[in-house]
Amino acid sequence: MTQLRRPPARAGGFCFDPLPGSPFGTLARAESGAGLAAVMAAAERSPDVLPAAMDAADGLLVLRGLLEIASAPRRLVELSRLFGPEVEDYRLALVPASMVHPEVPEILIVSNVAPVSRQPPARPVPPLTADGRLPTQFPHRRGWHSDQSYRRPPPDVSLFYAMQPTPQGQGQTLYANGIAAYEALPPELARQVEGLVGLHTRSGTGRTEQAVRAGETPRPLAPHERPQRQPVVRVHPVTGRRALFLCEAGQMDWVDGPFVGMEPGPDGAGAELLYALMRHATDPRFTYTHEWERGDLVIYDNRTVLHTATWFDATAHERVMWRTTVMGNPGPEYAGEARSWLVRSS
Ligand SMILES: [Fe+2]
User: Fold this and answer.
1) Which of 37, 112, 135, 185 could form a disulfide with 190 if both were Cys (CB 3.0 to 4.6 A apart)?
2) Residue 327 forms beta bridges with which residues?
3) What is the 147 CA–ligand 1 centroid distance (Å)?
4) Domain map of the chain by residue range?
5) What distance in angstroms lies between residue 146's CA and the mean position of ligand 1's atoms?
6) Model's pTM, two decimal places?
7) Residue 2: which pLDDT band, with cuts at 50, 70 and 90?
8) Tell me, what's the pLDDT at 1?
């Protein structure tokens, strides 16, 4: 089946081009000119166009050259509001205060620079594939996840902005199309994922694959920290399309999961299935590698797209990225639920 995974070439003051080198996603620009002001003006006139383009492109939308956001961070929050009813306030999100932008608490700072000091993932071994490419496929490439999947309801969309990227060739972000991966599942895997439920957890609880393999004792968890169940086949609330919704080592629960009702633990039948699904979902025919330039904004739908960070030389380069998260439309499965991650007083 041939599927056009991008929007019409022009709509509502924007032009949409195929994303170079990618099997999905779209590259958007304002018809009236380059820069942030043109994008904001077109988005104000036609607020539904960018979200519709993202939906048409299977959940990946790239805008480039938005250098002005660096000195006008609230514009990033305004752009984020196009993609859903609520932009997360990171002061409520159980992240270290050093990662929250001091003036705009809707911005999470992802950086190896102090005080955030978050180090990049390890370099894959070997660093390139046999044909000399950057590895994307699990398990050569690790760290694939959907943002904050350990919450119910999980968030909708993330916006990731390059304040200060690394030189190209390192520090990329990889994206995988969960819709295309679902549609291309071999029959045996398709049968196994129907109705399957994943158990997602945050790191630091002693329940990740690394922690379980290291023999850590899982610590007792308060209600707001506990692993959460999520459907492995997620139905998008706007398009109705089905996507694989999975993470791997650092964001699935390897004590009781990764799947409800299957043999648990890192050597169980559940792990074997997860590895097979993750290998499939991150096949190069479903993935895109984004090489960052200053001023790039990548908008991705966590309901249908997986992603992972890559290594960069943190001894030589300072990298500063800003992220916002939009939530409020997770789908009917979550209707009326209290937020699992908030500390409740009663
Ligand atoms: Fe992420």
Assistant:
1) 185
2) 86
3) 5
4) 15-334
5) 6
6) 0.96
7) very low
8) 42
